[in-house]
Amino acid sequence: MESFLVVVFLIISCASLAFSAGPCKVGATRKLPINQTFLSSFSLLAWSYEGDTGPNHWKGVCETGKRQSPIDIKSSDAVYNALGKFDLKNYDKKLDLNFTVANNGHGMVVSLAGGNYTVSGGGLVGSYKTVQFHLHWGPNNDEGSEHVVNGTAYPAEMHFVSCNTNYPNVTEALKYPDGLAVLGVFIKVEGDDNDAWSFLDFAANVTKYKSSVVVPASDFAVFNKMLPASKSDYYRYNGSLTTPTCNEVVTWTVFKDAVNISKRQIGLLRKLEKQDGKPLKENYRPPMPLNDRTVKASFNATSVATNPPPAAGSTTMPTGGASVSRMTAGLFLSMLLILFTLQ
Ligand SMILES: *[C@@H]1O[C@H](CO)[C@@H](O)[C@H](O)[C@H]1NC(C)=O
Ligand SMILES: *[C@@H]1O[C@H](CO)[C@@H](O)[C@H](O)[C@H]1NC(C)=O
Ligand SMILES: *[C@@H]1O[C@H](CO)[C@@H](O)[C@H](O)[C@H]1NC(C)=O
Ligand SMILES: *[C@@H]1O[C@H](CO)[C@@H](O)[C@H](O)[C@H]1NC(C)=O
Ligand SMILES: *[C@@H]1O[C@H](CO)[C@@H](O)[C@H](O)[C@H]1NC(C)=O
Ligand SMILES: *[C@@H]1O[C@H](CO)[C@@H](O)[C@H](O)[C@H]1NC(C)=O
Ligand SMILES: *[C@@H]1O[C@H](CO)[C@@H](O)[C@H](O)[C@H]1NC(C)=O
Ligand SMILES: *[C@@H]1O[C@H](CO)[C@@H](O)[C@H](O)[C@H]1NC(C)=O
Ligand SMILES: *[C@@H]1O[C@H](CO)[C@@H](O)[C@H](O)[C@H]1NC(C)=O
What we know:
With 343 residues, the protein is an alpha+beta fold. The protein has helices spanning 2-18, 34-41, 61-64, 170-173, 223-226, 263-270, 328-342, and strands at 72-73, 79-80, 86-89, 98-103, 108-112, 118-121, 128-137, 148-149, 156-164, 180-189, 212-216, 234-239, 250-255, 259-261, 296-297.
């Protein structure tokens, strides 16, 4: 019991760290059923990407949800929609800020406090503050991304997570279907080191479980350079966090074009350690059923041949509990989930 409490404490601490970003703001929208959130809260404490606690055993909404992420994007089924250009505020600037780079046991997470970067446009309703970005990868270049296109995965995928400014914080945003917007970037392993992704070198500073470093934003390339050059070609659908508690609150953007990183750079990620001290070789959730959802494409996806990538993957994010709200425990679990997911 004692160790359980310690774990919970650590999780909470982490979560606050991860989501300490500035307020999103307050608004009114219908809340999701509490029941769902409640159930999902409990899957947090012991989830992983393997064995008895792997994706096939995640509970709650992860198991029962009908708008789960990631998905296999069948480009020929994507419906063309002129969603428009993104407005990525400060994504072209190096601000006088510090970022926190952490290994949360589920991945590498870079947390941004202050809400200085915002995402709007691109068919999104409203404005979203970027709170963190994190990565998913696999043990080899045939797998690692969470989304897959036409059944083909990439070696890795990055997620920029942003919180709807209608809500005061991520914990609150997790209760609403329009709570988060995530920008997904496919990663290929090709060629020399990609300088725009030199922050991957910080993976070597957080090899150990729960380790973190504070790094000046000036040591990162501007975010625009981390994103694909073509930011106007992307897929859009309504989905979820790809980690417990799998809250169905994410408006997904998955860019059509991948970015390249080197073999050395992806190797840094594969050296991160899990809680048990062993390498975190993979941290992706496999594709979930599309069900009755529509995938939109901002471009004519039926006439475009996609780049050849690797195999299959997954994504994760924060979790939150709503019904538990009566008990503080609920909030608390949510925070934990969120932390882990972000990682
Ligand atoms: C909670 O969710 C489960 C699974 O979706 C459902 O079967 C059950 O009726 C729900 N309970 C309440 C009180 O809403
Ligand atoms: C960033 O961190 C450094 C070292 O901890 C500190 O001196 C500096 O004031 C911080 N900068 C900002 C903008 O918080
Ligand atoms: C970042 O956002 C915070 C909170 O809104 C603000 O106080 C700070 O001045 C901003 N920093 C920069 C460098 O824009
Ligand atoms: C998030 O916002 C809600 C509603 O304003 C507040 O009750 C809660 O304490 C906030 N949580 C955090 C972690 O700041
Ligand atoms: C990261 O590790 C490198 C190599 O050991 C070291 O030079 C650097 O100072 C570390 N960075 C931080 C932010 O701790
Ligand atoms: C996502 O859900 C919203 C609200 O129901 C809807 O307006 C929007 O069209 C959906 N997006 C997609 C891509 O289906
Ligand atoms: C990635 O590599 C491919 C193949 O070498 C190349 O065509 C493409 O231009 C590269 N992309 C970037 C962004 O460097
Ligand atoms: C997309 O491209 C295909 C093949 O060139 C063409 O048949 C189709 O009409 C185009 N669709 C739209 C919406 O432009
Ligand atoms: C996916 O497959 C469809 C046909 O099955 C093809 O038209 C489309 O170009 C493919 N897209 C990619 C990105 O490979």
